[in-house]
Amino acid sequence: MAVKTIWDQKRIGVIRKVTTSTATVTLDSQLASLSLQLNGKTYPIGQIGTYVLVPVGRQVLLGMVSEFKKFEFGENGKTKSHYEMIISLIGSVKNGIFERGVSTFPTAETPVYILEEKDLAIAFSVFQRFGFSTGRLSLFENERAYIDPNRFFGKHLAVIGSSGSGKSCTVASILQKVVGFPDTKVVILDMHNEYQAAFPKNSQYLNITELELPFWLMTFQEMTEVFVNSSDEHAATHITVLKELVFQAKRLQNPELKNVLTIDTPVYYDFEKVRSRIEALDSEKSGPFYGKFGRFLVQLDTKLNDPRYDFMFKPRLYIHSASFAELLTKMFGPNGASKITIMDMSGVPFDIVNTVVSLMARLAFDFNFWNISRRECPILLVFEEAHNYLSTSSDGTQAARRTVERIAKEGRKYGVSCMIISQRPSDISDTILSQCNNFVVMRLTNPMDQNYVCRLVADTYPGLESLLPSLRQGEGLFVGDAVPMPLRIQMDPPDPEPASADIQFFDKWKRKSEPTNVGEIVRRWWNQERC
Ligand SMILES: Nc1ncnc2c1ncn2[C@@H]1O[C@H](COP(=O)(O)OP(=O)(O)OP(=O)(O)O)[C@@H](O)[C@H]1O
Ligand SMILES: [Mg+2]
């Protein structure tokens, strides 16, 4: 009996048909159990997302299973069956080095082999040199998954998945691997105050409502969205007058800059004076603006008198232009003091979240735009719950979307990168997601979002649709140029976890807890004190 070589033992089938990016493989008939024993390990055959090898000349092509079918047919009065799988040809190994894409194609009858754990080392050899691993490969539990962190952080990325799929934990886990470096610079826009718990060291926590984000940092576009109601019949007048008065006020307050000032220069001015002037114009009987600012003033005063907006409209610390540098130092810690800045947005009123995000993102972008050593200190901006403010739907303000779109398009040149996190990717601006070079896709159950994500990464991850709903908690599909090939990774759990853990309803209901202090709830509610 002929001795079986290692390749004979690894063989699982032959190619029947080839297109430009896929091949159809018929499985060898003795593999009806759909598994193969090799070197003491059992490898499943035909599972979506598993890998196979196809030697062609001096190269070995790497394929990923994207479809699996069983065919039944009659022969000599008996029902027989065979299995077929479609594989996507995703890369090739030449002289021991893995490359994405395929230039030589197999022909019919080319044998196909299973990929063993040890073969993976070749695919990872280039990526392993960074020593940056985010978790274990789901299909090879003993193998760690290595990614290229320069590409991952540097070219915009998105983390998407249904609520509870593990996005925040994934982000915390990944960032915990870089927080110890001396010059890491990450700004997290944290909508629910989750991340503070995950970064007890090397981070600074800023509660936006305590920090103050003075109104004078807003661009005129942002101001318009906050104060002008576009459906008001006098909206155009409101915009023109507001622009003129704000510009005048800025010039008056900052005479030394009067030749370079624009309407968007972030310098202090007296907003109360602008308001009084508008009121005077509105009540000037013979003037052109008589009675045109009634509703505008009511809306303006509602915001100015609401204590929830004090952090913006009634600043106490930042009441002169020179304080701008102080604020930027606090936010971006340019002296390497804080590696991760957590901006707690949980206390920001819902109708102004959009403006605040726009402002924060723009400040980060402009900070590096005007920084001559920007290449030395790149900033990663993390947008949590991005569907809330980066959506394309027409309701609500669009300032944040426009700002982040600009960063998505130009940020790379100025060392500003975005990490978009969302449970509703189909709601997010196409311009932003299409600029992302890497995706971490977690369990996704909504069909609209599934379709959307499949369209985004279809050519690199065929068969993705069937996988999306079945991913485990904390399991992510990495697609993009930071991974040698599309990878299914069980993420390392974050340590410590962000404050986002699932609440165990059943356990909580079973156990008698302390009586709820309703008086305390009311007090916090009235005082807007989040816990
Ligand atoms: N890698 C992991 N291993 C094990 N469990 C995990 C992992 N990642 C997340 N989990 C668990 O999943 C739960 C939800 O995680 P997380 O808060 O990150 O979800 P999410 O996708 O951010 O949800 P939401 O969209 O509602 O913010 C947590 O209880 C966490 O313990
Ligand atoms: Mg979350």
Short description:
The chain is α/β, with parallel strands linked by helices and 531 residues long. The strands form three sheets. It has an eleven-stranded mixed β-sheet with strand order 11-10-20-19-18-12-17-16-13-15-14, sandwiched between helices. Helix 6 runs antiparallel to helix 12 (350-369), helix 7 (235-253) crosses helix 8 (271-283) and helix 12 (350-369) runs parallel beside helix 13.
Output the keywords:
531 residues; binds magnesium ion; binds adenosine-5'-triphosphate; alpha/beta; 24% strand; single chain; Rossmann fold
Write a structural description:
- By secondary structure, this protein is of the alpha/beta class.
- The chain folds into 3 domains: about 120 residues; about 250 residues, P-loop containing nucleotide triphosphate hydrolases (Rossmann fold, 3-Layer(aba) Sandwich), CATH 3.40.50; about 90 residues, no CATH class.
- The chain has 18 helices and 20 strands.
- The strands form 3 sheets. An 11-stranded mixed sheet has the order 11-10-20-19-18-12-17-16-13-15-14, with helices on both faces. A 6-stranded antiparallel beta barrel has the order 1-2-7-6-5-9. The protein has a two-stranded antiparallel ribbon with strand order 3-4.
- Strand 3 and strand 4 form a beta hairpin.
- The chain is elongated.
- Magnesium ion binds next to helix 4.
Share of residues in helices: 25-40%
Return the CATH architecture of the largest domain: 3-Layer(aba) Sandwich
Q: Can you list the ligands bound to this structure?
A: adenosine-5'-triphosphate, magnesium ion
User: Given the helix and strand composition, which structural class is it?
Assistant: alpha/beta
Q: Report strand %.
A: 15-25%
Gyration radius (Cα, Å) is 29 Å
Instruction: Give me the CATH superfamily of the largest domain.
Output: P-loop containing nucleotide triphosphate hydrolases
* Average of per-residue pLDDT values: 88
Low-confidence stretches: none
If helices are DSSP runs of H or I spanning 4 or more residues, what is the number of helices? 18
CATH class of the largest domain: Alpha Beta
Task: Report the biggest beta sheet as strand number plus sense, adding barrel if it closes.
Answer: 11 strands, mixed
Q: Remind me, CATH topology of the largest domain?
A: Rossmann fold
Q: List the domain count as a whole number.
A: 3
Query: Which strand order does the major sheet show?
Result: 11-10-20-19-18-12-17-16-13-15-14
Got a strand count? 20
* Anisotropy-based shape: elongated
CA distance, first residue to last residue: 74 Å
